[in-house]
Design brief:
Elements (H helix, E strand, L loop, with lengths): L8 H7 L1 H11 L4 H14 L6 H13 L3 E6 L4 H6 L3 E6 L14 H4 L10 H22 L2 H18 L4 H11 L1
Antiparallel strand pairs: 1-2
Helix pairs in contact: 2-4, 3-4, 7-8, 7-9, 8-9
């Protein structure tokens, strides 16, 4: 497709936050570039093309919704240490219900991505908590009630998903919404 504003339903399906999270979940963590390559491969398998801007927007949306979380990834195996360095990766976040879009099961055979990655869950939980606190403070300062309502829901997800106590953040959000 040459005009990414003419996104079809099938494009949206594999660019939805839960579908993107499903792709990431298959590999434990992916760089933004690797995730963009995965989306391009899925589009190709469907006989379509997709603009990188559309993929970037979909990734940004998934991050904004806490379906994906950006974390620093430290290689753990000797093979990874030879080929990678500490860099930002995307991991599945607390609001995601990861699902594989059609055709995604073949991605591990197509992409040149290490499948043995491991991410410390505490590192991801800490990244989520810090970001939640920052965004709640920003939304409160901006008087953005819609974002505060969204972040209030995220607090509950984070509590369950990561075992992080967000009672103080939730209380701050509730005060800001009064």
């Amino acid at each position: 497709m040459s005009d990414d504003s003419a996104t079809t339903d099938s494009d949206r399906e594999f660019l939805e936050p839960d579908a993107i999270a499903g792709i990431v979940d298959m590999f434990t963590a992916l760089t933004r570039e690797e995730l963009a390559d995965a989306a391009a491969e899925l589009a190709f398998k469907r006989g379509e093309s997709i603009e990188r801007d559309a993929v970037d927007r979909a990734i940004d949306d998934a991050v904004s919704e806490f379906a994906l979380v950006s974390v620093e990834y430290e290689p753990t195996s000797d093979t990874e240490q030879e080929t990678q360095y500490s860099q930002s990766h995307l991991a599945v976040g607390p609001t995601a219900f990861p699902r594989l879009p059609d055709g995604a099961a073949d991605l591990p055979h197509i992409l040149d991505v290490e499948r043995e990655r491991s991410i410390d869950r505490e590192v991801v939980a800490t990244a989520v908590e810090k970001r939640l606190r920052r965004e709640a403070a920003r939304a409160a300062a901006d008087g953005d009630d819609d974002r505060l309502e969204t972040l209030l829901d995220v607090c509950f997800d984070v509590d369950v998903w990561a075992g992080v106590d967000t009672d103080d953040v939730r209380a701050d959000i509730e005060r800001a919404l009064e």
